[in-house]
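Morning, I've got a small favour to ask if you have a moment. It would help a lot if you went through both lines with me. I owe you a coffee for this, so here goes:
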Amino acid sequence: MSLPPLPDEAVVLGASAPTWRDALRLAGGALVASGAATAAYTDAMIAMVEEHGPYIVIAPGLAFAHARPGAAVLRDGLAVVTLAEPVAFGHPHNDPVSVVLALSVAEIGTHLESIGDIANLFNDQSTTSRLAAAAAPAEVRAIMGVSA
């Protein structure tokens, strides 16, 4: 699997987000805290949903936030946010969202491989609920099969 590492700073568990924008700000903030992206990347992730709709809600309860590679990406990064109360993104089938993944990719060519790996991980429909129930970053890493 070619997913980036998931340091403790990139995991936020049981967070509160009144809106989908707040949920993406938490996920972007986790990428910033881990040194993977700047705050401008968070704005870019929000802009993608504003422009294209809630396409990032890829499975029931799961949003996969990302934006294009660019100056706001410092390195490949992954963040996981679980929400204490699920939030609606406006997706007709997969709302509400309780787990938000965020991916930052430094180079255009590598992001498709990472996206494919994430899609494969969530072929198991229990993955989202297991992540939502995780109590510690190490548990999140074990579920996702990534390193710190």
DSSP finds five helices and five strands in the chain. Residues 20-33 form the longest helix (14 residues). The beta strands are 11-15, 57-59, 62-66, 77-87, 97-104.
